[in-house]
Amino acid sequence: MIKTKTCCRFILLTFSLLLSAQVLFAQYSEYEIKAAYIFNFAKFIDWPDESLQSDTLVLAIYKYDPFGIIIDKTMQGRKAQGKNWKIVRINTIEDIAQCHVLFISNLGTFETMKLLEKTKNKPVLTIGDEIIGFCEMGGVINFTPQFSAHQFEINNEVALSRRISISPKLLTLAKIIANSEDEF
User: Fold this and answer.
1) Does residue 4 form part of some domain?
2) For residue 167, is it within any domain?
3) Is 24 a domain residue?
4) At 173, phi and psi to the nearest 5?
5) What is the CATH number for 68?
6) Owning domain of residue 108
7) If you compute the radius of gyration of the chain from its CA atoms, what whole number of angstroms results?
8) How far apart are CA 153 and CA 107, in angstroms?
9) Could you give the dihedral angle defined by the CA atoms of residues 138, 50, 46 and 115, in that order, rounded to the nearest 10 degrees?
């Protein structure tokens, strides 16, 4: 009888711990977390002065938008680099001209490479959404799959070539990607 009660208590305790862990992880969606990361990335990035002439910091989401209104709610009323956020959704490469941050998700390799080529000599912080080889292709930051050791990777050489300076504090949190032998 005592063994049965102990066993039942153990099962109930285990079940409650599992349930509370699920609730904890379910509190925020993947894209709520990624929106918060993007907001915080901007705190640790220095753009050249000439690129920050307006009173807004423009985040462009190219074609596929996995955030919906989440990104708008996350950035609303908040500032980065002393600037208000402006979120734009764009569908053509030509529209990226005035952005500071470019979020890219769900694109094929060829289109991703075209976008990265277009931003190559511009101070644009490109952020990929779990795109394989993104930083090697010339992207600056790439979110990694959920269960990897790091939540994101950074190619600091690409950032420096775009005149973007990334704080060492942010670099210590990332997996650092080096350029491949071929120039990006």
Assistant:
1) no
2) yes
3) no
4) -90, -10
5) 3.40.50
6) 29-176
7) 20
8) 18
9) -20
Question: Which helix or strand (DSSP H or E) is residue 18 part of?
Answer: helix 2-26
Q: Rounded to an integer, what distance in angstroms lies between the CA atom of residue 37 and that of residue 33?
A: 6
Burial 145-179 (b: 16+ CB within 10 A, else e): eeeeeeebbbbbbbbebbebebeeebeeebeebee
User: pTM of the prediction?
Assistant: 0.83
Which tokens sit at 19? 């349930």
Which pair of tokens denotes residue 70? Answer: 């989440």
SS3 per residue for 61-107? EECCCCCCCHHHHHHCCCEECCEEEEEEEECCHHHHHHCCEEEECCC
Helix H or strand E segment including 79:
strand 79-80
Token match 């079940």: residue? 15
Render pLDDT for 67-122 as a digit per residue (tens, 0 to 9).
999 999 999 999 999 999 999 999 999 999 889 999 999 999 999 999 999 999 89
- Give CA angle at 59 (54, 64), nearest 5°: 150
- Quickly tell me which residue has 């795109």 as its tokens: 131
153 belongs to a structural domain: yes
Tally of structural domains, the chain:
1
Pairing of strands 165-166, 45-46: antiparallel
